[in-house]
Model the fold of this input.
Amino acid sequence: MSDPRFAPAYAYVHPVFWPWLWLQLWAIATHQKETGQDFLLNVTRCGFVRIKYVSDVRKPKPKNPYKYEAPAVPAWERPALGSDMPVEFADNAQPLLLSALGNALHAALADLRATCREPAPDTS
Done:
């Protein structure tokens, strides 16, 4: 067992008693993996391990009840599904919305062009 957590215990115990120490630490580590409990240990020079304190058993993590279900129709195929607009109006509304956006953009660009075409004021 080469767990670095137990290195101070091996350094404290006389090497003659290392097999006995290994057996006890192995049993404690196995129990810790199964239950998830933490222990505060007291180790003697002769390799005896006493458990001073034991933590509570950890509660298992709750399983996530949420499961993602992909929509049957992707949003980019039918944009009306992502809005409050009825499906019947979606086909007619798309060209109307695009043309209104295009007209507004065209008017803004025309105003910008008119502003930029004016001659610069003579400040001399």
Notes: The longest strand covers residues 49-54.
